[in-house]
Amino acid sequence: MADTITKNSPPTGGDVTPLISLPAATARIATVAGSVLALAGTFMAWTWTSAFPGDLTVTGYPGGLQVLVLISSALTLLFALSGYGIRGLNWVAPGGPNAAARLTALGTLGTVGYTLGAIAFQLGGVVNLEPGAWVAGIGALIAVVGSLALPFDQPFPAGDPDKGGWARFRHSLTAPHPPRARALPSAVEILIIVAGFALGLIVFTYGIDTEYGELFVGFLITVAFAFTGLARAGLVSRLTALTARYRGISLAAAFAAALCFPFTQDNDYYALIGTNILIFATVALGLNVVVGLAGLLDLGYVAFLGVGAYTAALVSGSAASTIGVEFPFWAAVLTGGAVSLVFGVVIGAPTLRLRGDYLAIVTLGFGEIFRVTMNNLNGASGPDVTNGAQGISAIPDVKIFGFDLGSPHDIGGFTLGRNANYFLLMLLFTAIVVMVFNRSGSSRIGRAWVAIREDETAATAMGINGFRVKLIAFALGATLAGLAGTVQAHVAYSVTPDQYEFAGTAPPNSAFLLAAVILGGMGTVSGPLIGGALLYLIPAKLDFMDDYQLLLFGLALILLMRFRPEGIVANKRAQLQFHENDQLDLPEQRLSDTAVDTTKAGA
Amino acid sequence: MNTMTTTTTTTVLDASDVTMRFGGLTAVRSVSLTVNSGEIVGLIGPNGAGKTTFFNCLTGLYVPTEGKVSYKGTVLPPKPHLVTQAGIARTFQNIRLFANMTVLENVLVGRHTRTKEGLWSALLRGPGFKRAEKESKERAMELLEFTGLAAKADHLARNLPYGEQRKLEIARALASEPGLLLLDEPTAGMNPQETRAAEELIFAIRDMGIAVLVIEHDMRFIFNLCDRVACLVQGEKLVEGTPEVVQSDERVIAAYLGTPFEGAPGADELAEVEAAEAAAPSTNSRTEEAQ
């Protein structure tokens, strides 16, 4: 118990005064009571009519947005109770419970507030709110006020000149890194990893299966706050420490979770969203080789996806194909990859001698040239290869060993539709790309890429042939995109030039691919996958804000770059576990170090 | 680690009549310099004398307008990576580490020319790849031991203190197994203690059988360290010889401290001015206070 108290009581010798001054006991009681009230509110009716999607009129059975509020307030309650130092709840917040409680409370308030606003807006006035909505709203508000009155998890930096409310508020949402976890039996640790990925699958599936835009917005709010809350509580870093220790098992668990996804879908449309996410995320990961590792800004990357897709379409045996050949799928994949490789080398060889901005402009030009050329090879303004704007349509489904991916199959009592089949096929490609990224990244060639990105002059002075190494990165990236393109052609039934433009409202396009890499986190595997999933889902789900989509997207990107420039998943090279003392140049250490070195060097 | 120095000296680096012009400006004018095995040669000269330009000509960063550079008898191609592959490694005046890579990774990058594993072997991960990676890591750790950075192998290079960043740059250069190491101001910004440590380190490198060519402004350091010193002034080699010779050469002193110009105040005038200043101390002190 003593250990609990020292861990959860604020560190002494620093300013931990909360934003709102209330007695500490009152603040904690308010947080607990508020979250209980919000939780109770979700079991009551929020509105009188089922006209609002999700049917929030049932008492005793939360539905739709109420479920999200329920989860969020339950988390708040958990963190608030953990702050009492209750035995058995310590593991919930090894980093510190207060910031996590604040974040989840804010998330609850955000979701409730959004729901109440949406009801009032759609049904025409606040009169449409039933008491349950008010109970939940007031509960969330009390929880937020109470949690803001909880002390900081780490003292406000004394030297910080910015003592304004905003700075203090932002600081109140931070928590120290948790201490190293006690070692558990490895079976338990592996179970925790599996549970973590299972949770991830559930959250992801819930997001894809949201049936209406309001629920998806609520989902985003809840997940964003809850995830940040869990990160501040230190649970995320605990989990990543575990996944770093069991790399192979984690990778397998991640793919097992992804493999389970089509079995959870009874609606083949959602499986199609999953497949498209996978294609988009895989291409983003391929781009990450070029941008994240080698630091080459490629603004026309989607063209390589197009090259692969067009190649696969031409050799697919489609009636619209101008060359009447039909390759088996594996040969089509190899051809698509090879043609993309050739294009990558042809584009890369003259341009990779350029640095920085010039390369970006040339690749931007190449992306557009590809699209325009595909438009013009229509028999009228050029030879008929691609049917111009009509594209190549009616691409037949893939058959592998007599297994037709186009028709549903029953596996273990689950019916897998066409798109679910393609999801599984694409997952294989994703696995290949992840493997290529991992293996090339942590090798001599990968180190050379990062060295080139960091300082090209120094890298060449270390004996790296900059041009050659960059060309390998560029060609490898092109090949990976081409491979994904061969699947994409079959999934989409047809390929047309306007699928492969620089920027548009729907992914994949070059701008979105680059955004997925930067948003997710450059140089990481999970970053582009998460970024790709988000960037695909958001436009697909929020079609009601069609006209403002790009505007909001730009706004979100600016905000992200302001507050988290490293992306969602930060690239910690080689799991630097000494993050807490980031400034390592401690003066007192330095003297003794050099003294030791003198003797060593002299020896 | 200590390969004994051979008793017979061979010429490692032979730069003959290297001239580098940038448009109308001649930064280096027909400079010849040789470095023999087992030798530490110093290159001194005032700022802007062309020392770093000369270095860049040696390492292929610049293509010399005239003249040629040969290493152990073969003429070097003007490509930095080929020069490194031939056996010349260098450090930079302003530290150029790969800031976001770990200390160990920085040294491993230095091993690039001495390993052959390409993309395919990285993807297939055969036994050869694993062996090469293991060897590289062992060699890199040896070098980190040697420079005293082994304990910080997993730190990001940018988090190292300044003196250790300099050492890491040297370790990285040594990883390419050079026959000649070019050091561009290795003690810039160091305190006397660190400078002494650097001196020991360079002696130890020489004892490994690596010839060293070093640019430096710290005269005590250079005259302690070097077997031979060349002085570069305005792109031309002024004098070359043992530290004693260079130290006492009037032209070198003049290049550093300046020569009395035409009509410069002689001793008499100087005494006069000093007397005048002594006569009016109050005005001086007042201005000092005002400042």
Write a short abstract of this structure.
Chain A: It is a multi-pass membrane protein. Chain A is mainly α and 603 residues long. Chain A has 22 helices and four strands.
Feature tags:
heterodimer, A: 603 residues, mainly alpha, ABC transporter involved in vitamin B12 uptake, BtuC, two-stranded antiparallel ribbon, two-stranded antiparallel sheet, 22 helices, 4 strands, globular, disordered N terminus, disordered C terminus, B: 291 residues, alpha/beta, Rossmann fold, 3 domains, six-stranded mixed sheet, four-stranded antiparallel sheet, 12 helices, 21% strand
User: What string gives the helices and strands of chain B in order?
Assistant: EEEHEEHEHHHHEHEHEEHHHH
Distance between the termini of chain B: 58 Å
Question: What is the number of E strands of chain A?
Answer: 4
Q: For the residues shown, what is the average pLDDT of chain A? A: 84
Tally the helices of chain B.
Answer: 12
CATH architecture annotation name of the largest domain in chain A: Orthogonal Bundle
Low-pLDDT residue spans of chain A: 1-12, 574-603
Which term fits the overall shape of chain B?
globular
Number of domains of chain B: 3
Count of extended strands of chain B: 10
What is the CA-based Rg of chain B, rounded? 23 Å
Quaternary structure of the protein = heterodimer
Number of helices of chain A: 22
Gyration radius over CA of chain A: 27 Å
Give the biggest sheet of chain B: 6 strands, mixed
Task: Quickly name the level 1 CATH class of the largest domain in chain B.
Answer: Alpha Beta
Architecture overview:
Chain B: InterPro entries: AAA+_ATPase, ABC_AA/LPS_Transport, ABC_transporter-like_ATP-bd, BCA_ABC_TP_C, P-loop_NTPase. The complex is a heterodimer of chains A (603) and B (291). Chain A is 62% helix and 2% strand. Chain A is an all-alpha fold. In chain A, the strands form two sheets. Chain A has a two-stranded antiparallel sheet. The longest helix of chain A is centred in the first third of the chain and has 27 residues, at 97-123. Residues 1-12 and 574-603 of chain A have low confidence and may be disordered. Chain B is an alpha/beta fold and 291 residues long. Chain B has three domains: 1-87 and 178-259, P-loop containing nucleotide triphosphate hydrolases (Rossmann fold, 3-Layer(aba) Sandwich); 98-160, no CATH class; 267-291. Helices cover 42% and strands 21% of the residues of chain B. Chain B has twelve helices and ten strands. In chain B, the strands form two sheets. Chain B has a six-stranded mixed β-sheet with strand order 6-7-8-3-9-10, sandwiched between helices. In chain B, strands 2-1-4-5 form a four-stranded antiparallel β-sheet, covered by helices on one side. In chain B, strand 1 and strand 2 (25-36) form a beta hairpin. The longest helix of chain B has 21 residues, at 127-147. Residues 1-6 and 283-291 of chain B have low confidence and may be disordered. Classes of the chains: A mainly alpha (603), B alpha/beta (291).
